Amino acid sequence: TNRRYISYGALSKNNVPCSR
Amino acid sequence: KPCPVNFEFMNYTIITSRCKGPQYPAKLCCDAFKDFACPYSDDLNDLSNDCSSTMFSYINLYGNYPPGLFANLCRDDKIGLICPAL
Known about the structure:
The complex is a heterodimer.
Chain A lengths: L4 E3 H4 L9
Chain B lengths: L12 H4 L9 H12 L3 H5 L5 H13 L5 H5 L6 E3 L4
């Protein structure tokens, strides 16, 4: 069966590109 | 490309009722996140639209979560977060 997944690419949108 | 899913008025309590600070337990938060997001995985994984950015905006808004919480907390497999079987 092919399982669904949430890619790390999609998950990485949770990161904000500021505050370093 | 706009997102075909409207994340604005969704019910986020599936996440906010289970994933709480200040601890944000990874298991609870990531399972809750997957329960919410997995039905939309096809659109979220399509990085040519803005679905995932939009969804995270609302998750962080409704849950008042720190930026990057789920990205930092959730790891499953090499390929990504494995969704529970339907």
